Amino acid sequence: MSIASKRNNQTNKKQMHMHDNMKKTILALTVLAAGIQLHASEPWNVERCMQYAADHSHSVRLQKFALDDSHAAKTQAIGAFLPNVYGSVSGQMNFGRAIDPETNTYTDVSTLYNGYGLQTSLTIFDGLQRYNELRMAKANEAMGRSGLEAEKDDVALKVYKAYMDLAYCLGATEQVARKRDESLALLHQTEVMAEVGQKSDADVAQMRATLASDDYELTHMQTQTTKARLALKQLMNYPADSSLTIARPAIPERLGDIESSDKTIAYATLANPRIAKAKQAVDAARYNLHGARGALLPSLSLSGGISTSFYRNLDHGGHTSFSEQFKNNAGEYVSLSLSIPIFNRFATSSTIRRRKIALEQAKENLRYEQSELRRVIVEATADVENSDKEVEKMRVQVESDSIAAHLTMRKYEEGLASSIDVKTAAVTLLQSRVKLLQSELTLAYNRRLLNYYNGERLWNE
After folding, report:
1. Looking at the structure, do residues 104 and 204 belong to the same domain, yes or no?
2. Which of 285, 341, 437, 451 lies 20 to 30 angstroms, CA to CA, from 137?
3. CATH of the domain at 108
């Protein structure tokens, strides 16, 4: 075999290898794109919606900023126990009559003076003001964490409610569309029966009017569905122009034993983040009051420093070198200062009075939050029990209305019922189905709310 032939074979093998690699790359990209599209079109369950809202909601982000601010305030309160250290540099040039730093007498020569210093100060006792400010900062930080959890839960519950509203609109739209299809089929059947003389033109007209009414109701429910979807996206801070498909929520079965409201209240009082936030607000207000009272006590501070200088006569030479003056002119000092408050124009007393009021406001807010929590739990417990009964009764009613609508339809086909009777039975069945859907979704929401107050997480992070 010639050398040229061998080279051609090697070139062909390389091209085939490159072609195979390109095909594999294209196939991998196609599979990846299909997976991304499938994931994007996958229906969202309510837990995923709540978690998305907790991560992206504007109110939650603002609460995170508040928590970061309280953390910075705690760092500042810790730093207040450390000494202050600062340096100073000064420069002065004198012309005309001035004091000679070497002889301390007046002179009229031009001089240059530089001063250098390093000072430090430490507050030894300030009436425990810094200590109480640190305790207040820690309480504020804990309050910020509880506030963040409470805000996440509030947003999640609002999203859950909006999710159920959207699920109701989707279910109602499905039921209306189903009735509209039945009305269309019945219209065709009535027209055929009218052609053979079994039905009159009035029956046909009535069926057309029923179909037109169903078309209107379907359009109306589709509009309500669009609004409900936009409301859910807004609460989640989800892009309004992006598609969002939700999964059908699970409907709970018959209830078992429900925890008494007293047990739920006792648990929620200890674990609910809104109650924890209110308690921490009381602690912060109490420490703030203690800090204000500390201003009535004397304060003791320690300070010290070192300084040196450099002097030069600009009219005459022969001055001492900078390094020698910097060393010879150095001096140190230490001082201990005691400050006793006597009168500051009622500033301290007014601050104490205002912080007492703030403490009472925090206590009253805690009592309000506890009272509101009890009311919500008692109401949620009653709502769960009543919703469960409503669901069972509505299921029986839907079954009965379904049988009645079927019998009315049979009578209509046999000429024993009018088109108005058929419309009335169909509308009654539609209303029963929609009420059943609403009752089931209300039961799901109330049970989720009650489980939340019993300590169950709204979603798993």
Report:
1. no
2. 341
3. 2.20.200
List the strands of the sheet with 111-125, edge to edge. 84-94, 111-125, 299-313, 331-339
| Alpha-carbon separation of residue 211 from 44, 173, 189, 404, 421 (angstroms) | 34, 15, 13, 20, 15
pLDDT of residue 26: 54
Can you tell me the distance from the alpha carbon of 422 to that of 201, in angstroms, rounded to the nearest whole number?
Answer: 16
Angle, to 10 degrees, between the axis of helix 201-236 and the axis of helix 419-453? 20
> Does 459 fall in a domain?
no
CA-angle at 195, arms to 189 and 198, nearest 5°: 75
Both tokens assigned to 446:
């109330």
Phi, psi angles (nearest 5°) of residue 264: -65, -40
User: Cα separation of 57 and 232, whole Å?
Assistant: 12
pLDDT at 34: 42
pLDDT recorded at residue 133: 96
For residue 100, the one-letter residue type is: D
- The phi and psi torsions of 343 (rounded to 5 degrees) equal -155, 125
Is the pLDDT at 4 greater than 50? The verdict is no
pLDDT tens-digit map of 352-379 = 999 999 999 999 999 999 999 999 999 9
| Neighbouring residues of 402: CB distance < 8 A, sequence distance ≥ 6 | 429
One domain, residues 288 and 307: no
Beta bridge partners of 44: 246
How many structural domains does the chain have?
2
Across the chain, what does the average pLDDT equal? 88
